[in-house]
Design goal:
By secondary structure, the protein is mainly alpha-helical. The protein has one domain. It is built from nine helices and no strands. The longest helix is centred in the N-terminal third of the chain and has 31 residues.
């Protein structure tokens, strides 16, 4: 009975830490208004530019590829800003030394980034349908699954890059190769008639890399 109570208390404490850290990041963004407006402007500009650049009647494959390129690079804007408040205010060491599980920092940052990315996609997906008429139910499902992998892996890579001098260069160099499977799975789910295997691939990617990032994050921030 004591073990059960102790285990329940630890789970509640862990979730409360994640919630507090996530709220902190969301409130900072609401006050600063740095990340989300840039993401919205970027993704809207991408669709407008390619709408007038691509020839009329472009294939669904080309349009889907454009959607996923826009999503990945829009996510990079959020990931590049994920640890900027702590870096600018020199509170990253204090955050790491806080009396909470360090994986809670990764999970909270991932959830905050996921919120920003989802907000940008609320604008991006209707624009994509308006300009290219290629939005399907499987596309939306693929975007939702890919977002989880993008935020999980991107936050982990962002924590690795933030302590280096070339962090603006290192983040995309580390993140983009890891995002290629997500783009392949997302494009496949958008264009094939039976998207189940691609959606399953995205789900497996999310599960595998979320577990790896959750387990390894402590060693990244400590080193």
């Amino acid at each position: 009975m004591i073990r059960n109570v102790s285990g329940d208390w630890r789970r509640v404490s862990y979730l409360s830490d994640v919630g507090a850290l996530t709220r902190k990041d969301l409130l900072l963004e609401l006050r600063a208004r740095d990340t989300l407006p840039a993401m919205l402007l970027f993704v809207a500009a991408v669709f407008v530019v390619f709408h007038f650049s691509l020839p009329a009647g472009s294939s669904r494959l080309a349009a889907s590829g454009l959607l996923w390129v826009a999503i990945v690079f829009t996510a990079l804007l959020a990931l590049g800003r994920a640890f900027v408040p702590e870096r600018e205010q020199r509170t990253l060491d204090a955050l790491v030394l806080a009396p909470c599980d360090r994986s809670a920092i990764w999970l909270a940052k991932s959830l905050a980034t996921l919120t920003f990315l989802a907000a940008a996609e609320i604008v991006a997906l209707p624009l994509f349908e308006l300009f290219f008429h290629g939005l399907r139910g499987s596309t939306v499902a693929g975007v939702a699954l890919a977002d989880l992998g993008i935020c999980a892996v991107g936050t982990f890579v962002g924590a690795t890059a933030v302590v280096t001098r070339a962090r603006e260069l290192l983040l995309p160099l580390l993140f983009l190769p890891l995002a290629i499977p997500l783009v392949i799975g997302g494009v496949g789910a958008s264009v094939v008639h039976g998207p189940g295997r691609y959606l399953g691939f995205l789900g497996l990617y999310d599960l595998l890399f979320a577990l790896l990032c959750w387990a390894a994050f402590e060693y990244v921030v400590v080193e």
